[in-house]
Amino acid sequence: LLRHQVPVIAVEESRSEQEDHYKGRICMNRVKKFITGIIFLMMFTVSLNVFAEDISVTLNGNNIVFEDAKPIIYNDRTLIPIRAVFEKANCYVDWDSKNNMAVIGNEEKVIFISINSEKMKVYDIVKDEENEIDLDVPAMIVDESTMIPLRAVSEALGAKVEWNQQSNTVSLNI
């Protein structure tokens, strides 16, 4: 009778170990599904925040043609490829690769805007003073183009900026 009970206990322990093993695998599968769901949700959220709508930009009444990168809307802010607009506005545009920063300037001001920073520095040449300005959205690299928040940079350079919701047009007057 004793011999018969020992193997039964061993079998029960073996089943318990197997059950624990399968429960662990089921738990891991649930964790994997949860993580996959979170990743999918994050990708969906990011895609909702960046729109590649047809956005027009005019500079002093002239339409700007964007040959490479196009303007985008990110978190309700228009970002543009830096050179397309500001070189046409007779601004100095340069890239500081060491600091991952764009430099834009005219006769009165120089702007330093770093990628992924929520601040930009504006140096007023005339007043010889520097100010830091908070940005609603940071400058970023999109498809190998430096994209900057149009309104913040333009207004810092002294431009008047207007947005026409119906035509998706930003008008700059410098």
Give a brief description:
By secondary structure, this protein is α+β, with helices and mostly antiparallel strands.
Secondary structure elements and pairings:
Layout: H1 2-49, E1 50-51, E2 56-59, E3 62-63, E4 72-74, E5 77-81, H2 82-86, E6 92-96, E7 101-105, E8 109-114, E9 119-124, E10 129-134, E11 140-142, E12 145-149, H3 150-156, E13 160-164, E14 169-173
Parallel strand pairs: 2-14
Antiparallel strand pairs: 1-4, 2-3, 4-5, 5-12, 6-7, 7-8, 8-9, 9-10, 11-12, 13-14
Account of the 3D structure:
- With 174 residues, the chain is an alpha+beta fold.
- 34% of the residues lie in helices and 36% in strands.
- It has helices spanning 2-49, 82-86, 150-156, and strands at residues 50-51, 56-59, 62-63, 72-74, 77-81, 92-96, 101-105, 109-114, 119-124, 129-134, 140-142, 145-149, 160-164, 169-173.
- Strands 1-4-5-12-11 form a five-stranded antiparallel β-sheet. The chain has a five-stranded antiparallel β-sheet with strand order 6-7-8-9-10.
- The radius of gyration is 28 Å and the shape is elongated.
- It starts with a helix and ends with a strand.
- The model is unreliable at 44-50 (pLDDT under 50).
